[in-house]
Amino acid sequence: MATEEGVEVSAPNPAARRSGWFGPLALFVYGSAVAFWLWAKWLFSPQMFFLPPLPPVEVLVSLVERTLGPWLISLFTVSSLGLIALDSVRSRSGPNPGWWWKSLLRGSAETVGIHVAIWIAGTLLFFAIMALLPGSEVHTLSASDPVVRGLVLFTTFLSLLMSGPITALVIAARSLSRRRRDGFPDSGLATLNHSVAILLVPLAVLWVLSGYPRATLQSFSSPPSETRAEELLVAARDGDTAQIRSLVAGGAAVNHQDRSGTTPLMAASANGHLEIVQALVAAKADVNLKDAGGRTALMAAAANRHVEIVSQLVAAKADVQARDPEGKTALYLAALAGEPEIVRALLKAGADANAAPPTGESALISASRRGDVEVVQALVEGGADIGVRSKEGKTALEIARVLNHHEVAALLEARAKH
C-alpha cells in the first residue's frame, strides 16, 4: 500500500479488475442465449408442418424442451424479466438515471423496425430472383402454397439471421456514441448488456403472442389424457418413435388436433417419420382428417416428397382426390415438388391427372414450365390432357418450346402424334 501526500492509496488489484468483468460478461452471454431462444421459438412455429424437414436450430430447441419440459417457460420468462430488471438497477448508478426507459422503448422500436425492414427487403429480393429464373412458376403460386410457405420461412430465417446481429450492432453503436452525454453505462460490455435487454423486449412480446407460454402452461392444468395427446403430437413432430409407441400403448388420442388442426399423423407425414406413420396408422389414426388449412396427411407427405409415407397412407385408404380450399390435390402438390415417384403412386391409386386449382394452372403446365421431364412423363402416362392451356393461353408444348425445355417438348410432341 503506497502513500501520496500522507493519504494512503491502494495499489491496483488485477484480480479484482478481472472479477469485475466476470459478472457483466456472464450476464451478456446468458442474455444472448435467452434472446436466441426466444428468437428461435418465435421463428420455428410447431404449427408450420407443411415445410421441409426441421432445421438444426429447431432440432436443438426440441432437444432442450424434452430435457427441461414446461419449466423452460418459467425459466426463460423469469430470466428475461430478470435481465431487464438488472439492467434497470444498474442504470440508476449512472450520471443520468432517467435515460434507461427512454432508451429501452426507443431501442425496442428500432429493433422491430430493423427486423421488419430486413425481412421484407430480403423476402422481396429473394422472390424477385426466383421469379426471374427460367421456368420459374413462383408468380403463379398462392401465399398458402407449401412451396411459397417454405420459401418464406427460408427467407425469414436468413433475414433474421442477419438482422439480429445488425440490430445489436446498431443499438450498441448508438449507445456508445451517446454514453457520456446521456449517462449510458460506462463500459462497452455494459452497453452490450443494455443492447441485449433491448432485444429481449420485442422478442419476448413476439414469443408470448405466438402462444408458446399459454400452450405449454396448459399442460399443468390439462387432464392427463389431453396432456398425453399433446405429447404425442410433439413426439410425432420430433420423430421420437419410442415415445410414440409408449403413448399409444397408454391410450393417447391418436386423432388429437391442436389449434391449427394438426394431428400427430400430419406432423409425422410432413417431417418424413415413416415408422411413426406406420405406428399411428396401426393405431387407427384417421388418415383423412384435415387441418385448419384444409390439408391432409397425404398432402403433407406429397408436398414434402416423402415417397414411402405416401405409399403407406395410400395403402391405408387415404383419399387421393381430397382437395384443400384452393382446389389442390396431393398429386398436384407432388408435381409442384417435382417428385415423379409420388405422382405415379397417386395416379396408380386413382388420382386425377388433370385436377387443378380453379384459379391456377394444371400440374402438367407447371411441370412443363419448370422443364421437369420425369414429372411430365408421369403425368402424360397417367392420362394428363396435353391440350390444356395456361393462363396465357399456351399449351404445355408451347411453353416448353418457348423456354427451351427440349426434352419436355420432344416428349409432348411424341405424345401429340399418337
Overall description:
The chain contains 20 helices and two strands. It has about 425 residues and is mainly α. The termini are far apart. A hairpin with a 2-residue loop joins strand 1 and strand 2.
Largest sheet: 2 strands, antiparallel
User: Which stretches are low in confidence, meaning pLDDT under 50 for 5 or more residues running?
Assistant: 1-13, 15-19, 46-54
Annotation field: number of helices: 20
Q: Strand tally, please? A: 2
Q: Could you state the oligomeric state of the chains shown?
A: single chain
Q: How many domains?
A: 3
As a whole number of angstroms, the C-alpha radius of gyration is 28 Å
* Backbone structural class: mainly alpha
Distance, first to last CA = 104 Å
Q: Order of strands across the biggest sheet?
A: 1-2
Overall pLDDT metric: 76
Strand content: under 5%
- Give the overall silhouette: flat
The sequence of SSEs as H and E is EEHHHHHHHHHHHHHHHHHHHH
Helix fraction bin? 55-70%
Could you name the key traits of this structure?
about 425 residues; mainly alpha; Serine Threonine Protein Phosphatase 5, Tetratricopeptide repeat; two-stranded antiparallel sheet
